Amino acid sequence: MTNDRADLTPSDWDPALDAVIAAPRHHKVLFENQNIRVLEVTLEPDDEEPVHHHRWPSVFVFDQVQGPVHDIAPDGTQLPPNRDVMRAIQGWDGQGCLVVNMAPQPLGRVFNASGKTVHGIRVEMKISP
User: What gap in Å lies between CA 99 and CA 105, rounded to an integer?
Assistant: First the structure.
């Protein structure tokens, strides 16, 4: 099952495409219990994650990020910079950490087109949508 259709709910998304399983080089589990999962996320310059999803809402705290960072649909088309992180980067002054409230993210991948490593901690809230 794929989850690139808007009519599917996150609970229906393919578990094999979860970020930790589909993109393990970029997503490391630091802690997990029945309520939350804490991930360390790293994306080197000019690196692209494999296609994956994030089924739960989360708070993403970046200690290192710089644009341009591109969101790419499963079919390879670049998405407009209107998703949570891309919008937050545009309004951030670069001081301190960037904190972003994230909605569940359907299938996609991220390409770091900047000269700086993207790094942060993502706390996913395991709730039923």
Answer: 16
Instruction: Give the tens place of pLDDT for each residue, 47-72.
Output: 999 999 999 999 999 998 887 888 89
Torsion of CA 13, 16, 18, 24, to 10 degrees: -170
Give the total residue count for the chain: 129
Q: How many CA atoms lie within 13 A of 101 on its CB side?
A: 0
33 Cβ contact partners less than 8 Å away, ≥ 6 residues apart: none
Residue pLDDT, tens place only, 79-111? 876 567 777 877 788 888 999 998 898 899 999
The single residue listed with the structure tokens 């708070």 is: 59
| Torsion angle defined by CA atoms of residues 24, 37, 65 and 114, in that order, rounded to the nearest 10 degrees | 20
